[in-house]
Design brief:
The protein is an alpha/beta fold. Helices cover about 35% and strands about 25% of the residues. Helix 3 (about 95-105) packs across helix 4 and helix 3 runs parallel beside helix 5 (about 140-155).
Length: about 475
């Protein structure tokens, strides 16, 4: 009998008084794609980080290929053939794609040689990328592709991926999952952490579910269902049902957002991202933007949020505007700072306790504590570092801070990226409540099902042009996103 590619047994991990893992286990076979599922804070990322050498377990053995493994660092993991692909990019922004890959893989830095090797690797895997692009200028989907190539360039045979499809359009996600299952199919092993349950059950051959740091389910994907997995994740509660799409937008009021003949330069000022765009969003209306990466949606959202100056055209937006960026760890929060400090920095002069150049930290902390309670965040208190929160609680903090400004307009990029079904449902509820109070919501999601469920109206960005589909049809919208309709 062939031993598992990777086996973790009875893994324990605590952070101070918080238990992250309580006897967790994971066994992955060679040739297998395995989905690791659970709510935010269930311990999934911690378990992967232990296997990848970024964290050390307080107890519990790890075996690779049947042999006892000591993994104290990412270097140890790489020597054992384990590659980790993080949810948030770890590349050096000022280096090119080729330089980042060479640095991780330990290649000799000969520019022409490493460029050729990157082209060969990315072509063979079906993950094309420009080796000369600077990592910091890549859109987030290509940053994630770079993370995968870095791991595979280092000769990984066991690939650990944290939310690999979180920011991908449906067709992009399907293509990536085909690449990963193909990689596993030739005798390697893949572990995927995802909150997209149907995707997990279709791509993986087996699933492991964690809840409160312990395993609640190990099963074959062909015998499990989204409901059975949800019960294991949520303790029997099942998946929250999405609310019905709202249809009560206040058509009698003037638009809260109005674009007319708007041209916006591509991020980095190279080329036109949005050309002749026209769009109106009414107070109380939720408008979703469907697009594949690089179709102009990023520049649209940031122009409306006031972060990018349009080249020409009309752009009228009611103030104040609240912005929820797609990457909470690099744009939404400063992780080493406290929750109260992040609240003050994010709200500026509107923050509680701020009077001119002075800050009353007592008042700011009290206001932050109130938001922690109202939004149901799991946090030690307003003085806790933002980096100690789970991804779901970090997103709650970003959203709570945005809503605390009582905005007339909310611009949200992938607001449920990396969140479990319960946390995503909470974000949806908060956005619907804001819209019911008269706030205009413009949001983009890489999850087409989320766009269809949450938006009153759907607009497709493709090739820098905005178009509204004739009907709310998933197939039609998907084809419009890639310019096939």
């Amino acid at each position: 009998m062939i031993p598992p590619a990777l086996q973790l047994r009875n893994i324990h991990k605590r952070y101070g008084s918080t238990t992250a893992l309580a006897g967790a286990a994971l066994a992955v076979e060679w040739g297998e794609t395995h989905a690791l599922l659970g709510e935010n804070g269930a311990g999934k990322s911690t378990l992967l980080r232990i296997a990848g050498g970024l964290e050390r377990a307080d107890g519990g053995p790890i075996e690779v290929g049947g042999g006892r493994a000591v993994i104290r660092s990412p270097r140890d993991a790489r020597r054992l053939g384990i590659g980790m692909v993080h949810q948030h990019p770890t590349s050096i922004p000022s280096l090119t794609v080729a330089e980042n890959i060479a640095l991780t893989a330990g290649w000799r830095v000969q520019p022409r040689e490493i460029r050729g090797r990157v082209l060969e690797l990315s072509g063979a895997l079906g993950l094309p990328i420009d080796p000369d692009s600077y990592a910091g200028r890549l859109p987030i989907a290509l940053k994630q592709r770079l993370e995968i190539l870095k791991a595979l360039a280092a000769r990984a045979r066991i690939l650990l991926l944290d939310e690999p499809t979180a920011v991908l359009a449906p067709l992009e996600a399907e293509e990536l999952l085909r690449v990963l299952t193909g990689f596993a199919g030739v005798g390697n092993a893949v572990v995927i952490v995802t909150h997209k349950l149907r995707e997990a059950l279709s791509a993986a051959s087996r699933v492991t579910v964690l809840r409160h740091g312990a395993v609640t389910l190990v099963g074959n994907s062909d015998t499990e269902t989204p409901d059975s997995v949800s019960r294991a994740m949520l303790g029997g509660a099942g998946r929250p049902e999405p609310s019905a799409t709202r249809s009560d937008a206040r058509t009698s009021e003037p638009p809260a957002i109005r674009l007319q003949a708007l041209d916006v330069a591509r991020d980095g000022r190279y080329g036109i991202a949005l050309r002749g765009a026209a769009l109106s969003v009414l107070p109380g209306e939720i408008v979703g933007i469907a697009a594949v990466e690089g179709a102009g949606q990023r520049e649209l959202m940031r122009a409306v949020a006031g972060l990018i100056e349009p080249l020409r055209g009309v752009l009228e937006v009611r103030q104040p505007v609240a912005f929820v960026p797609e990457d909470r760890t690099t744009e939404g929060l400063i992780l080493p700072l406290s929750l109260a400090e992040n609240m003050v920095l994010g709200m500026g002069e509107q923050a509680p306790g701020v009077a001119g150049a002075l800050v009353s930290w007592k008042a700011a902390s009290a206001a932050t504590a109130d938001l922690i309670a109202r939004f149901g965040m799991t946090a030690a208190g307003p003085e806790a570092q933002a980096g100690t929160l789970s991804g779901g609680n970090q997103q709650k903090l970003v959203l709570a801070r945005a809503l605390a400004r009582n905005p007339k307009v909310i611009v949200a990029e992938n607001p449920t990226r990396g969140l479990d079904v319960a946390a995503a449902a909470e974000v949806h509820r908060r956005l619907r409540e804001a819209a019911a109070g008269g706030t205009a919501v413009l949001f983009h999601s890489s999850d087409l099902d989320e766009l269809l469920a949450l938006s009153d109206r759907l607009v497709v960005a493709s090739g820098g042009v905005l178009r509204e589909p004739e009907r709310r049809d998933r197939d039609l919208v998907g084809r419009m996103m890639i310019g096939a309709a």
